[in-house]
Specification:
Layout lengths: L3 E7 L3 H12 L4 E5 L13 E2 L2 E2 L4 E2 L3 H19 L4 E10 L2 H11 L15 H6 L5 E10 L1 H14 L3 E3 L7 E3 L4 E3 L2 E8 L19 E9 L8 E4 L1 E5 L5 E4 L13 H14 L5 E10 L8 E4 L6 E5 L5 H8 L1
Parallel strand pairs: 1-2, 1-11, 2-8, 6-13, 11-18
Antiparallel strand pairs: 3-7, 4-5, 6-7, 9-10, 10-11, 12-15, 12-16, 13-14, 14-15, 17-18
Helix pairs in contact: 1-7, 2-7
């Protein structure tokens, strides 16, 4: 194994995965240090790319740049790893009020939105499975199979002898006047892409993290044929292995990262309220998102050392933000 690298990337969630890939494509020698995604929220996320969001139905920040970059990058990773990760889906949003209907109607007349909107959508199948459907908005979106992508890319890193299978330890870091060392590895540039772990990073003090906890159910829905992403109070999204990802909201006042009985009951209640058919809970999982005040990623160079960088804070939009900002 080569004992010197241009870049050591800390973390291999979606941020570290995409960034390390982009760096290697640029010709840099790279190693990634990661302990198997034990704290990665990317492994628990649905990977939804939604160009029009919120109750006011506004375009996501820089979405006209983000989506082309995402499509290009994920296609390149599919070619590299020999699997499918980027899936185009309609996002069906059930409009729950006159306010939402009026906001959506205004978007239908806006030329900046038309390429993301589907008109004249047949909602018969939707009504077969869901209650309380008055009117809907249909958006052209996508989903990234994050869990499969991150796992496959990890295996590729191992084959390339580019993975250090360990938790990063600052005690193993030695910084000299012209070079840095991690154990006996000579490192020209150190890049932290470790999500919420950067909250206590001494090279980047006072980062504006606003972490929140999300809880989701992975369910099977017998005889359910909808392959669109449905937002009806909660998200019901195709996931992997014939499972559907069911999630809603977040908790800013959490005390731990574990799934809670209260969170599970809340999701069951919300799902049963809108879904007509039975479902089977396969897993209940939770994760802490590295969300940031202002919902913009944290990118840049340390003021303490010009060879140390940060690529973090992608929050709930990591699937769309990572390719462009990497």
């Amino acid at each position: 194994m080569d004992r010197s690298v241009d870049c050591l990337v800390v973390g291999q969630g979606i941020a570290g995965t995409i960034l390390s890939y982009k760096l290697m494509q640029k010709g840099y020698s790279v190693k990634v240090i990661d302990d198997g995604h034990r704290t990665s929220s990317s492994m628990k996320a649905a990977g939804i790319i939604n160009p029009i969001t919120g109750r006011s139905y506004v375009k996501s920040w820089k979405v006209d740049d983000l989506i082309p970059s995402a499509e290009f990058t994920y296609k390149a990773l599919e070619d590299l790893l020999g699997a499918k990760y980027y899936h185009k889906h309609n996002i069906i949003r059930v409009l729950g009020s006159i306010f939402e209907e009026n906001k959506w109607s205004s978007r239908l007349l806006d030329d900046g939105y038309t390429k993301y909107i589907i008109n004249n959508f047949d909602d018969d199948e939707l009504r077969r499975y869901y209650r309380n459907i008055e009117s809907i908005a249909v958006i052209k979106g996508a989903r990234v199979s994050l869990r499969s992508l991150i796992s496959d890319y990890r295996n590729w890193l191992i084959e390339e002898e580019a993975l250090l299978n360990a938790k990063f330890s600052s005690k193993k870091m030695r910084i000299e006047s012209r070079m840095m060392y991690y154990d006996d590895l000579e490192v020209s540039n150190l890049i932290f892409a470790d999500g919420l772990q950067s909250i206590d990073n001494p090279f980047f003090p006072n980062l504006p993290f606003q972490p929140n906890k999300g809880e989701v159910l992975l369910v099977r829905i017998p005889d359910y044929s909808i392959q669109d992403i449905v937002k009806h109070g909660i998200f019901i999204c195709p996931f992997e292995d014939d499972l559907y990802w069911v999630g809603s909201g977040y908790d800013k006042t959490f005390t731990d990262a574990n799934p809670s009985a209260e969170g599970k009951e809340r999701l069951k209640e919300q799902l049963s309220k809108v879904l007509k058919t039975d479902y089977q809970i396969v897993r209940h999982i939770a994760g802490i998102r590295p969300s940031v005040k202002g919902r913009k990623p944290l990118l840049g160079r340390s003021t303490q050392n010009p060879s140390i960088y940060l690529f973090s804070g992608l929050g709930t939009k990591g699937s769309s933000l990572a390719p462009y900002w990497a």
